[in-house]
Structure formats: C-alpha cells, structure tokens
C-alpha cells in the first residue's frame, strides 16, 4: 500500500499482535477518559490480550498504519458481515489523518467486495468521527464486556456509494485474504 504524508498502510502480520494490543490499550485508556467511567475503562482494557488479535479462526482484513517505523493505528473489517470491528489510533496521532486513511482503505475493501452496507458500533467519543465520514446513527446500543459492565455506544452504518459498484478496489486498497 502506498504512503501519504509519511503514512504507510499495510496488511497486519502475526508479529504485529503485541503492537495492535498496545495501540488498542493506549487509545482506550487515553481517548475514552471522561467519556466512560473508570471501572468501564478498566474492565475494557483488562479484557484485551495480544493473542486476541489476528486469530486464524476469525479471518478478517486487518490493516496497520505506520509512520516511519512506528505503528500508529490499525483497523479491522469483516467484509462478509459488512462490519467494521475496530479502528484505533495512538493518541498523539489523532487528528493527523491516520483514522481517516485506515477507514477509507477498509471501506474500499468492503465496497470492492460488493458489501452494500457497512455497520459499526461507535464508542461515544468516536461517533462524530464516523458521522463526518458519512455514517448515520441508527440507535443507541450497548457492547457487553462482562455481566456487570456494558459500554454505551452508537450503532451506525453507511451505504455503499453508487460509484462504488462491484469493481476493482480503489488504488491503495487491500483485498481480503
């Protein structure tokens, strides 16, 4: 995949698991503060494990974003279900286009695969990010973490643009493996 503004997107590798976990943990601990209660954040982070990423029993399209030699974000898509399952960026890279580029590349995979709708559960701090990129809020939702802790989120979706009919993915996009 190409580089833009020093940012390079590529498919995730098994050796990236620990870095994916670190990015996810840092993003939740920092960017969700004040949005979720401390016990919600602690529960969320405590459930994250490096071995939970890139599981062979759950084939997904997972892209990572690198700036230089540093991994600064990742996104995960289940194109068969039309579900964006994850999009996380390290806190010091927020607002620098990392999330937007990852999202655009994952959407290109989904649209190129013929997915008519792309859905996601947006954390409360990410709802505006997705809305500004064409996603529509459907309803409030809850993401169960444990029997006691369920995170508030917003169910959102975006329809495949008319111009994104079944064709070759846009330049720089990955096709699922």
Overall 3D geometry? globular
Elements, N to C (H/E): EEHHEEEHEHEE
- Strand arrangement across the biggest beta sheet: 1-2-3-4-5
Low-confidence stretches: 167-177
Can you describe this structure in just a few lines?
The protein is 25% helix and 32% strand. It has helices at residues 17-31, 38-46, 98-112, 127-131; strands at residues 3-4, 7-11, 61-67, 70-78, 83-89, 117-123, 136-144, 150-159.
Topology of this protein?
Elements: E1 3-4, E2 7-11, H1 17-31, H2 38-46, E3 61-67, E4 70-78, E5 83-89, H3 98-112, E6 117-123, H4 127-131, E7 136-144, E8 150-159
Helix pairs in contact: 1-2
Summarize the structure in words:
The chain has 177 residues and is an alpha+beta fold. Helix content is 25%, strand content 32%. The protein is built from four helices and eight strands. The chain has helices spanning 17-31, 38-46, 98-112, 127-131; strands spanning 3-4, 7-11, 61-67, 70-78, 83-89, 117-123, 136-144, 150-159. It has a five-stranded antiparallel beta sheet, with helices on both faces. Strands 6-8-7 form a three-stranded antiparallel beta sheet. A hairpin with a 4-residue loop joins strand 4 and strand 5 (83-89). Helix 1 packs antiparallel against helix 2 (38-46). It starts with a strand and ends in an 18-residue tail after the last strand. 31% of the residues are buried.
